[in-house]
Amino acid sequence: MNSKRSLFLIGFMGSGKTTYGRLLANALDMPFVDLDEALEQEHGMKVVELFEAWGETRFRREERLMLRSVAGNAPLVVATGGGTACFFDNMDFMNEVGETLYMRTSVRELKSRLLFSKEDRPLLRGKTDAELKQYIAETLEKREVYYLKAQYILDTDNLNAHNLMDSYEAIRAV
């Protein structure tokens, strides 16, 4: 990886952006920033609280501002929120100032990963298992048009800490 460029991890919630982002940052010897955590620190509230207090429109505006703010600290690895790439010109911006990696995950795997964290995620709160699966499938279908603008795609269904770097290096070599 060009050490002068940041790496932005994009993908649906539960795709492993934060977990694998920390591991990639460590392996690449780069600082790590989780965009949601940065928003929480800036505003003194959890993302779920910010979302409820502001509504999605203001949340997405604040998220856009935070993205630009952290990108000024390049180079670093940034785990974005699940919707970050889908609003405003965020995807174009990330592709301009760094490299983008879509953490592609199947609906089945996302449902499995998100089943027990529904209440912590504003867009999933209160959904039944069937509603969760339907929401994931429908939302992923809408968002994938943005996610697929990423420079690299890494399938995460069978990804783990042991094969992360080999998988990452393999997709970059193509």
Could you give a short description of this structure?
By secondary structure, the protein is α/β, with parallel strands linked by helices.
Q: What's the structural blueprint in terms of helices and strands?
A:
Elements (H helix, E strand, L loop, with lengths): L5 E5 L6 H12 L3 E3 H9 L3 H25 L5 E3 L10 H8 E7 L2 H8 L14 H19 L4 E4 L8 H10 L1
Parallel strand pairs: 1-3, 1-4, 2-3, 4-5
Helix pairs in contact: 2-3, 3-4, 5-6
Question: What does this entry look like structurally?
Answer:
The chain is of the alpha/beta class and 174 residues long. It has a single domain, classed as Rossmann fold, CATH 3.40.50.300. Helix content is 52%, strand content 13%. It is built from 7 helices and 5 strands. The protein has a 5-stranded parallel beta sheet with strand order 2-3-1-4-5, with helices on both faces. The longest helix is centred in the middle third of the chain and has 25 residues, at 47-71. The radius of gyration is 15 Å and the shape is globular. The mean pLDDT is 94.
